[in-house]
Amino acid sequence: MQGFKLKVLVADDSALMHSLFADFALGSSIPFELVRANNGRQCAELFNIGGFNLAFIDVNMPEMSGMEAVATARHSGNKTFVALMSGNASSRRLEIARQLKVYEYLHKPFKAEDVEAILKTYCRVTVPTQALIVDDSATVRRILRKVLDSSIFNIDITEAGDGAAAIDLYENGEYSVVFLDCNMPGLNGFETLERMLEHDPHVKVIMITGERNEDLRRRALDRGAFAFMFKPFHGIDVDRELHRLFDLKMPLLTTAAEPVA
To answer: Could you say which of 3, 59, 121, 173 would form a disulfide bridge with 86 (CB–CB 3.0 to 4.6 Å)?
Structure first.
């Protein structure tokens, strides 16, 4: 939208960091307006006021740490897209950041392109992603829907119970990604994949199966699947594949995370 700017909170007790973000804003291809906090308590108060699209928050600040400020905001239901900043990215800090539903942990010093990558991701995750789930089990489809709902991406889900229905839906709709089960009665997953590729060579299909079989994975990728995932998988696994699909920079908190059942 012309003239629209993202509203970005930067919380840091360093005047240099605020100056750097001002420079980033001037050179950014994605316009954003800065609101500044100089300590953790100011950060928490601004969070409470709300209205921010994103927040870049230093971990170590006087009066209240950045993590405490985020925890307070999360406790009150605030879901702002957050990147924490610090010179120390210990495994313990990364785990706390994941628990706080933080998107990224920026290790100081970082560059303008690191901030730009986060802005780009935010803009993409707020746009609905049309996804088609194809599985003959209604129970599995319900589980897959729950997993996709836990993704950071805003996923609009359509379901198909067999390959023929999936092909009809795909040919008459617009989907960014298809989650396709390998083993189905009638048209199996591989036959469905081939039919979709005939209709659209650029279709992005993530094939899925509960069978731990590397030959299946290689076969799917060789036949044109974008990716292959073994069930059960988790929201963070979906996020990894969608970052690849949309050519987004993979956040540290995604690459370092272990899936939690």
So the answer is: 59
Run of H or E residues at 229? strand 227-230
Q: What is the DSSP string of 123-155?
A: HHHTSPEEEEEE-S-HHHHHHHHHHHHTSSS-E
Distance, in Å, from the CA atom of 240 to the CA atom of 149, rounded to the nearest integer, reads 15
260 confidence band (pLDDT: 50, 70, 90): very low
Q: Looking at the predicted structure, is the pLDDT value of residue 50 above 80?
A: yes
Cα→Cα distances 239→92, 118, 128, 224, 250, Å:
22, 14, 14, 20, 9
Instruction: Retrieve residue 15's tokens.
Output: 């005047």
Q: Is this prediction's pTM over 0.85?
A: yes
Structure tokens at 140: 């599995």
Provide the token pair at 233: 């998988």
How far is 162 from 195, CA to CA, in rounded Å?
Answer: 13
Quote the longest CA-to-CA distance of the chain.
64
The token duo for 64 is: 């209240």
Kindly state the average pLDDT of the residues 216-222: 95
pLDDT at residue 2, rounded to an integer: 52
**148, 234, 193, 177 alpha-carbon torsion, rounded to 10°:** 40
Backbone Cα Rg of the chain: 21
* Residue closest to 165 by CA, chosen among 197, 208, 133, 131: 133
Q: Determine the Cα–Cα distance for residues 224 and 83; give it in Å rounded to an integer.
A: 35
CA 122 vs. chain centroid, Å, equals: 9
With left for phi above 0 and alpha for psi between -120 and 50, is residue 214 left, alpha or beta?
alpha
On whether the CB atoms of residues 45 and 33 are closer than 8 A, the answer is no
